[in-house]
Structure formats: structure tokens, C-alpha cells
Amino acid sequence: MVWKLLRQHLSVAQLAGFALANLCGMVIVLMSVQFYKDVLPVFTQGDSFMKKDYVIVSKRVSTLGSVMGRSGAFSRAEVAELEEQPFTESVGAFTPARFRVSAGMGLQGMQLSTALFFESVPDAFVDTGLDGWTFRPGQEEIPIVLPRNYLNLYNFGFAQSRSLPQLSEGVMGMMKLDIRMSGKGQTGRMKGRIVGFSDRLNTILVPQAFMDWANAAYGDRKEEGPSRLIVEVNNPADDRIAKYLKEKGYDTEGDKLDAGKTTWFLKTVVGIVLAVGLVISVLSFYILMLSIYLLLQKNTRKLESLLLMGYSPARVARPYQTLTVVLNAAVLAAGLLVVSLVRAGYLDVLGRLFPQMKGGDMTMAVATGIVLFLAVSVLNVLAVRRKVGLIWEGKA
Amino acid sequence: MTTIELQQTLPEVFAGRDGIVSDVWHRQTVFQKGKKYLVEAASGTGKSSLCSYIYGYRRDYQGIISFDGENIRKFSVARWVDLRKRSLGMLFQELRLFDELTAWENVQLKNRLTGFRSRKRVKEWFEELGIADKWDQKTGRMSFGQQQRVAFVRTLCQPLDFILLDEPVSHLDDGNARVMARILTEEAAEQGAGIIVTSIGKHLPLDYDRVMKL
Question: What band does A110 get if pLDDT is binned at 50, 70 and 90?
């Protein structure tokens, strides 16, 4: 009955306008959040077993340096200086093997063998979650991480030209390498097991524990300073890093810094879109508020009469509050639907561009939508209550 | 609630005026539950203001109005809502019916809130007051006299300690005024309610305990 009374003067056009405007705002906000969430991994995806934010630093190999026989290794002072930089979290050194290594594997009766080198970094730089990244003296197997482009080199170059089978990462993981180490007049044989591939570490990585043990057992060359450093940074997009490295004449490996820039760019673009969406949302919120205020204004006399009859302000406000909350909920539902449709579209395209991309879910969009819905609804409810309060006071 | 007390009460707009002669303003006045009062007033002496102060929807007065010794200025919204549902009834001079609802719906709007009267009872009153045929008619299409009777019935749809009637018979013939007076007397007697009627000319024919000049 109260609703029958109060729904008069309800302007469908105004409410539709609000719903549409709010839908636009909502979709833009949710879309940008969801897009960011979906696309970010494409740029930041690291090797699953490495900590994310690090750069690998080496000295530039120059012609003059080569001729003069200048060492490419970092001195203690240089490492210390790098450690003191504001962008540095920690610095780790690559430890090279000081013995000879060769690896072989049997493939369809054909024996391949090649001279190799090993390097290691402190375990703190390797995600310890990596399966079997341990070594204890006496252990028969050595876990190894190979650069992914070695595999590509084999699959797309070597295997094709020799009509050998192509190998997947999974198959590689199941193969055992025969590792032969020699030095100090001794020779040792072990098995190597490939536990992972890296896009960014251009080296053959073994656990630090193995390296320490093997260098002690076979190492016959004198120890030199590290030629490469792994630096964990707090923000790879920090432009001070690039500046410092340039100043010192150091090189970095991999595209980590570029990825940082891309991420930053993505964040900025999404931030702008998000802001636009929020502005539209706020404006649409105003439309709804104005529309409801107008409705309340037109019904002031009726509301006053209801209040005088003994209806409580809360009871009188409820139909309007329900109306706004239902509208907001409908907009949220429609917004999520639109987002999921659009997302299905672009995921398809992204999936083709970046096949390695893992599909995420819409938790982020749903959560953001609910937060937005709650915020807008609470404000609406409070505003209606305040307005009815004013009518009670006779000030409307 | 058993007493409504006015202590030195005066509408703020009268504050500057000298020589106010009134039985109500700027005096000590008490309305007792169970008694019948007539407040006679000339136009512009604050008759409707008095009703709105007591009913709690205007506060532009000086002095103190108290219910059972409690200053009503301090009453909360919830307290007023409760009073208007369970204790204090008011028939407004401007009636405050909803034009777009039928006579019965108008009554129902109040009765649903209190659940105090049966449909049968309301129907009986409609018949006695000669508006039974208007039951399903929108009040906006009725004459003011008919509307007055609908609003009167609506006012009775709640428990009452006091009932305020602001010019209840201004547009009624004597016959209907008498019927209204009878129903009001019966209901007030049953609940022991106090009646306060205002009038600028035509009086609701009741056996008043006190007649006051505003």
C-alpha cells in the first residue's frame, strides 16, 4: 500500500538513464580491473622457480678489455657498492665451476656428448619450492636448470636438420644426462636431471651446495671473482637501475627491465581507464541521487502525512532504499555479465598471442563489483534516510 | 499518558505581541485524560499551531509542553512514532488523506500500522456516517465533507489516550456532526480518552468539560 502510494511520480526514464550510466561506469571499472589482472601475467611472468624482481649484471666485454686481458670479474668493492644502492635488496654472485664438465645423452642409439659449464647462484635466489633443488655429497643425481633457448635451439635447429625427434619440456625432464667431471687428476661420473627451464638465466644452473662440493673435489683452476651478479631489486621499473648500470658500464641480461617498463605502462593505462570508469560511476550515482531526491521532493507531502500517521522514517524510507539497492544489484549483475562476455572475446585473442598464458578467473572483477555495489548502495541508503529525516524535521 | 500540560507556552510568532488574552497561551493549562475540551479560536490565534505543537511536528514555540511531566522537546523520533501509533490521535484540518487511494485504502493505511480495528467495524462507521457508498471511491473525487468523515474514521483506527480534532465539522451538516459526536463519545468513553476539539465557528456538539478561548 505504501509502495502503491509512493511509486507515483517515479520516472522510468530517469531510472533507466541512471541504470545505463551506472552500467557504463561499472563495466569500465570492472573491465579495466579484470583486463589488468588477465594481461599482467603476460608481461611479468617469470621463470616459475625464480624470484620475480631481479636483474643479472655483468661487465661489458669490450675489444680493448679483451686485448689488454682485463678481467671481466667483479671486485669485492664493486659488489659492495652495488649492494649499497637504494634499489638493491640483495646481491648474489654466480659461482662458476672450476673444473671441466661434459654431458652426454643417448638418443635413439646415437650418443651425443658435449663440453659444458656449470654455474650456481645462492639458493636464496632460487624459489625453494622447486622440486628436488637440493644436493648432498654422495647424491647420485644433480638437479639442473637449462636455458629454454637451448631447448629451442635443439628442437628448431638441430633436431630438424638431422631429422631427430623434437622434445618437449616434459620429455626432457624425464631424461637423464651423463655428467662427467674432471679436474685435480680425478674423474667423476654423475647423472643430471633437468628440473626446469629458464627464459632469463643464460647459464646451466646447478645447486650451490653441489657447486661448493664439486669445486672442492675437482676444482683445479684458481678462484676468480664472480663475472656475473644476480641482483634482487625492489622495483625493476626503477629508472635509477638503468642509469647506474650505464654509468658503471655494466650490462644486464634478459628483458626484465623492459618488462618492468611494460608493466608500468600497463598500470598507467589501466589506471587512467579505471579513473574514467570511476568518474562515470560517480556521475551516475549523482543521477540516481538526483532522481530519488526529485521523487522524494514530489512526494514530500505524502511522506509527511505518512510520518504524521505514525509511520516511522525508516519504514517510509524503505521503499526508496529497496528501489535503489535493487537497481544497483541489477546493474552489478548486468555489468558482470557484460564483462564476462567481453573477457571471453579478448581471452581468445590473448590465448592465441600468448599460448603460455594461464587462464585466470573473474574473482577480481566480482570482488571489485561487489565493493562498488556496496559503496554505492550504502551511500544511497544513507542519503534517502537523511532526506526522510529532513522531511520529519519539516525542513524539506 | 494521562496529562498534557502547557506551561507558559506561546508561538514564537506571537513573542513580540503585548497583551495576549487567552486561556491557553502564556498560561498554565492542563488537559486531563478522559475529559472533553473545546478550544474556541478566532482565525489567526494559533489554533492549528497548538495542534501541531502537541502532535510534535512543529517546535516553534516558547515555554514548555509536557506529557505526564516529561518535556516533549526531548522526545526521540521513535518515541513520537510510538505515540502517534498507540496514544495520540489527530484529525487534521487539512485532513491529509491520499487522493489517489480509495476511502477504504486510506483507512487501511493507518489500520495496517496499528491492527486496531476490524474491517467490519470500519464498514459500520462508514454506514453510520452515510459514506458507505464511497468505500471504493478515490478520496480525491469526494466532497470535503465526505473526506472529513473518512479522515475521522481513520483517526479512530488506533488506541487513544488523547484525540485532537482540528475543526472536525467545518463542512458537515448538523445530522452528520451529531453522528460523529456520538461515535467519538462512545470510543473515547470505551478507551478513557481525552478529547480536544478546536473550532472557529461551528462546534462539534459534545458535552464539554471545559471550553477555552484561545
Answer: low
Q: How far is A294 from chain B (nearest CA, A)?
A: 19
The reply to whether A328 and A283 lie within a common domain is yes
Strand partners, B194: B162
The one-character DSSP state at A123 is: G
Mean pLDDT of A2-15: 79
| Helix pair B144-155, B174-191: axis angle to 10 deg | 10
**What CATH number is attached to the domain comprising B117?**
3.40.50.300
Q: Do residues A37 and A360 touch, judged by C-beta distance below 8 A?
A: yes
- Number of domains, chain B: 1
C-alpha cell at B37: 475540551
- Contact between chains at A309 and B110 (C-beta distance less than 8 A): yes
Query: Which of the residue ranges A283-292, A313-322, A386-395, B149-158 would you say has the lowest mean pLDDT?
Result: A283-292
Residue A249 vs residue B86, higher pLDDT? B86
User: How confident is the model over B5-17, as a mean pLDDT?
Assistant: 89
Hey, are the CB atoms on B109 and A5 less than 8 Å from each other? yes
Phi, psi of A87, deg, nearest 5: -85, -5
* Cβ neighbours around A6 below 10 Å, total: 20
pLDDT digits 0-9 by tens, A26-64: 888 888 888 888 877 766 555 445 555 677 888 877 666
Q: Which domain holds residue A310?
A: 2-45+260-392
| Listed residue (A122, A131, A136) closest to A92, CA to CA | A122
* Integer Cα distance of B51 and B37 in angstroms: 13
Distance CA A302, CA A312 (A): 13
pTM score of the predicted model:
0.66
Q: Give backbone dihedrals phi and psi of A212, rounded to 5 degrees, phi first.
A: -60, -45
Paired with B163 in beta bridges are B89, B195
The whole-number pLDDT of residue A132 equals 73
* Total structural domains within chain A: 2
Which of B98, B110, B112 has the CB atom closest to A302's CB atom? B98
Statement: residue B135 has pLDDT above 70 = yes
Domain residue limits at B197: 3-213
Residues in B closer than 8 angstroms to A311, CB to CB, are: 81, 113
CB of A270 closer than 8 Å to CB of A36: yes
Grid cell of B80 as nine digits: 513520537
Q: Is the ipTM of this complex over 0.95?
A: no
Q: Where are the alpha helices (DSSP H) in chain A?
A: 2-6, 12-44, 63-68, 76-84, 148-152, 159-161, 169-174, 208-218, 239-248, 256-298, 300-309, 313-353, 363-392
Residues of chain A with a CB closer than 8 angstroms to some CB in chain B: 1-2, 4-5, 8, 302, 304-313, 392, 394
Q: Give, in degrees to the nearest 5, the angle at Cα A98 between A150 and A104.
A: 40
DSSP B96-163: ---TTSBHHHHHHHHHHHH--S-HHHHHHHHHHTT-GGGTTSBGGGS-HHHHHHHHHHHHTSS--SEE
